[in-house]
Predict the structure.
Amino acid sequence: MRESDLQQVHEIERQSFSAPWSIEAFRYELENKATILLVASIEDGIVGYVCLRTIVDVTHLLNIAVHPSFRRKGIGTMLLGSAIEELKGSVNRDHFLTLEVRESNIPAIRLYKKFGFEVIGRRKGYYHSPKEDAILMGRGL
């Protein structure tokens, strides 16, 4: 991801989440050396992105989204797989990955399970608009 991608990324973010990140939040992650930010593009357009940040020995999947017109085409799978592969090149094998997902987001939960993530907890009332629990998932590298 580059600075020039932020408008398109933010539009996908806005279309995908009830409480979207600001462009400034993405800009902050762009400047953070511990963050992996990848985009998927078709021709000249961004169709999806993923954002992971590492803190010591844990990496957290902060954000992943695909433009509504391009969902269910394997783009999310490609993005998450690419991000995990990039992560493997920069951390040791004892590393752990975590994420939160809305309990109602069954397609995302299926994607994460496909990558070996398991349910490791629940965060009551974590999400707002609408209020909902988060399922905490994790996996080793």
